[in-house]
Amino acid sequence: MEIIGRNRCFDGEQHRYEHQSEVLRCTMRFSVYLPDHAEEQAVPVLYWLSGLTCTDENFVTKAGAQQYASQHGIALVAPDTSPRGDEVADDPEGSYDFGLGAGFYVNATQPPWDEHYHMYDYVVSELPGLIRQHLNIDTETAGISGHSMGGHGALTIALKNPERYRSVSAFAPICAPSRCPWGEKALGRYPGEDRELWHDYDATSLINSAEHHLPVLIDQGEADEFLTEQLKPELLEEAAEKAGYPVTVRRQPGFDHSYFFIASSIGEHIAFHAQHLKGE
């Protein structure tokens, strides 16, 4: 693990790392914000999963999250959104919603995607292992959050691994990927055409069978151009109500799908996670 970027930011430092991923079989980069508290003791961590077309840098440069992470003494870890490199297969049509920058946080089982596209295993296992080995971060005290495709990733990963996370939140998540164009395209190619397999990566399906309930906070802009066709939060709300799973969905008037929306409420999300990670 090699540090390739380091900047002072509020009461802490923003780092960027590069490493060879065994899970993804390529060179990967990820970003970490370390508050000064980490010099004295291991700090809790909030993982952030970004959306389509993003890298590890979008969140750390646009959301303004570091000031709140510094205040609460929480590390922020932001992985990339897909495997990278010339040897990694990409969408032959060059679309933005599949292939490079669109790993969808699933494990691919269909060729050629199965050689590199294992973002689920990377986020759940390999990345925390690296962080635990090299940084003063308490990976046993973790929350997870994300935006759009990353919101889908955060919700599904947390629902499938409630023992690994104490809280989960999302901005404008893809709530039912098995019932929207983005999700149908990705799931139909990564795990394949068998729709039964898609339920493992669909928050609306997973919440029906969840036995352990995590605190869940979702913010959705009402002016989001993808709200009706792609995001479908009402399906998640219906499933949660039916399953008796408490989920807070806040619809925010006037906000769209951009990082302006995230920057406007990220402080509240980090405070939400701090409450469950540190008892604040």
Provide keyphrases for this structure.
single chain; alpha/beta; Rossmann fold; 9 helices; 23% strand
What does this structure look like?
The chain contains 9 helices and 9 strands. It has helices spanning about 55-60, 65-70, 120-135, 150-160, 180-190, 205-210, 225-230, 235-245, 260-280; strands spanning about 1-10, 10-20, 25-35, 45-50, 75-80, 135-145, 165-170, 215-220, 250. It has a single domain, classed as Alpha/Beta hydrolase fold, catalytic domain (Rossmann fold), CATH 3.40.50. It starts with a strand and ends with a helix. It is of the alpha/beta class. The mean pLDDT is about 95. It has a 9-stranded mixed sheet with strand order 1-2-3-5-4-6-7-8-9, sandwiched between helices. The protein is globular.
